[in-house]
Structure prediction request, 351 residues.
Amino acid sequence: MTPPPTDVWRRPPLPTLVAAILLIACAEVGGASMAKFKLELARGARAIMLARPAVHGLVGVRDVDEQIIDEALVKFDAGLRLFHLHAEGMGLVIIATTMTAATLVQSGGARRAIILLLTVGGAGYPFGYLLWSALIPYYGIQTGKAVAEWAVWIPFGGATIVAAWWLVVLVGARLVRRA
Amino acid sequence: MRRPPLVVVFLGLVIIALGETAGALMSQLRPQLASYARARVAANPQAHGLAGSPEYDAEVAARAVYAAEAGLSFFHTHAQGLGPLVIFAGTVAASTVRWRVGRGAVAALLGLGALFPLGYLAYSLAVLEWGREAGIEMAERYVLTPLGSAAIVGLVALAVLMVAGRGRDRDA
Prediction:
């Protein structure tokens, strides 16, 4: 049996494409929601923070408390923005990298593993920013960050990084063989 | 859709992988990166115009460290964006441009353009070694502008070749 031609792109598995498209759609919705509900989101986060003074170190002095709340709201907003940016970027990264893996990685096991890692890692990673934002009003900036880091960024981001370098090595080896 | 030359795909992938890795390192090693940057500023007092006044010097150092961190952040975001862009634009070129030389030229320009985000790494290092203004100017003049121009010229050439090819098809 002749192997499939590698000068023509092969389509990645359909679930991978659906995950990437949904991720991009979530990013667009996230961006639009941030713009449309900016005030409501900030008000809601502020109300939750005021209800948990101990978590945020609020002392009851307006000048001090406002500074602390403002800093937390900046991070809250940054988390939403970073979700929007990363989800848009990772959607395209998933399509480009899994298409490359589907076309250029010959070993079936390696191809499936790389595509799985890129899909799961890439689709999950941006949601860490959403989780961070959601946690900030309840648990504070640092605790929220630590939870998002261990629950999402490290496992999902790690999967993407491992798969991306694995793919680079395999495509690089192919380039060297051809040279 | 046809695949662009392997080397273009490889460059796109390397940039994506570097971008991902840089993002993770920036997040995990932020304090270490900041203290390294402050150490480099202190090691190059003349380049940064440090005057020996603690308050003034601290402000100058903070601005340089901020610029270096911004360079790393730009590297991360541009690498995520430009890697896929080079692969997709290369695919469009490989699939739609029939003139072999033109297709090769576009692929070469896109391959060079893929390296554009590395300019922001140079930007970060140059700011720390040569001072904020001089470092940014060096990185822009010698790395960012040539590589960015290659990407722009490649994309414009691709558009021109696509339109020209369409015109030829209609005439034939």
Remarks:
- Helices of chain B lie at 6-28, 30-43, 45-48, 54-96, 100-113, 118-130, 132-171.
- Chain B touches chain A at residues 1-3, 6-7, 9-10, 12-14, 16-17, 20-21, 23-24, 27, 77, 80-81, 83-85, 87-88, 91 (CB under 8 Å).
- The mean pLDDT of chain B is 92.
- The longest helix of chain B spans residues 54-96.
